[in-house]
Specification:
Elements lengths: L1 E5 L2 H23 L2 E5 L6 H9 L7 E5 L1 E3 L10 H8 L9 E3 L7 H13 L5 E4 L22 E5 L2 H9 L12 E5 L1 H5 L3 E6 L5 H9 L17 E6 L10
Helix pairs in contact: 1-2
Length: about 240
């Protein structure tokens, strides 16, 4: 695990995006293809914008994403399928495949479908973030570190749901779904390379817990301390509470 700091949040996203592009290009060169995971949310805007601008042979790329609300229509502004379609898929040449999570399908059947797909596509590069409550994907504390299932149906805790409303994805807390389909912690950790972008003062406590607390499912993203090729991209605000770097 390594840490890269930038004074400017937008510069942070651009640096992370460039690093992701290099890692994807390297996987294509070495293996003839790249399997990637993309994150969503406000923390990923600049990173994805940089990735879209990169010179990548996208036809050799298979994409998965981390999570999706259960029961939320794809037309809803908070839909992660909508987010990735509009901010990524519509701005690049067609991928070899894009495996989006269908939150409107039967959750158990959708998890089984995704499990089979991702098990056939070992992940080369994963882009992730950290929630204000320290969650990794939608694995809220206490996260399940033990399951080896690639995708799970999870309950969203109050802090997670409040964050989604505060970021103005929803008009009220009651509008935020109670459940989601999430990639598991175990599956994320199987990624060969992890790029974790975490800008903003409101993430400072989560960053501190993730990097300076002992690994614990009470701080889900702390598990990234154990990944040999995980790099945290932080700005001055998100890194403000750190004592060890």
């Amino acid at each position: 695990m390594n840490i890269i700091r930038s004074k400017d949040p937008q510069q942070l996203g651009a640096i992370a995006g460039k690093a992701a592009a290099v890692a994807i290009q390297a996987a294509i060169q070495q293996k003839g293809r790249a399997n990637i995971i993309l994150a969503t949310g406000t923390s990923q805007f600049e990173t994805i914008r940089e990735l879209v601008a990169a010179d990548i042979d996208w036809v050799k790329v298979n994409m998965f994403h981390l999570d999706e609300y259960i029961g939320l229509p794809v037309t809803h502004p908070a839909s992660f399928r909508k987010y990735l379609t509009e901010r990524f898929l519509q701005k690049i040449p067609p991928l070899q495949s894009a495996y989006l999570i269908n939150g409107e399908a039967d959750p158990v059947e959708e998890c089984a479908r995704l499990d089979a797909l991702i098990e056939a596509h070992p992940i080369d590069v994963a882009l992730v973030g950290i929630g204000e409550n320290g969650h990794l994907a939608f694995n809220d504390p206490p996260a399940d570190f033990n399951t080896t299932k690639p995708y799970l149906v999870v309950n969203l805790d109050a802090a997670c749901r409040q964050q989604q409303m505060n970021e103005e994805w929803f008009k009220s807390l009651s509008d935020v779904p109670l459940q989601a389909i999430s990639m598991s912690v175990h599956q994320i950790m199987l990624s060969e390379c992890i790029i974790c972008s975490v800008p903003g003062e409101r993430k400072a406590r989560a960053v501190k817990n993730s990097l300076e607390q002992a690994v614990s499912n009470q701080f889900p993203a702390s598990i990234l301390q154990r990944h040999q090729r995980c790099v945290f991209y932080l700005d001055e605000a998100s890194a403000a509470g750190l004592q060890k770097v």
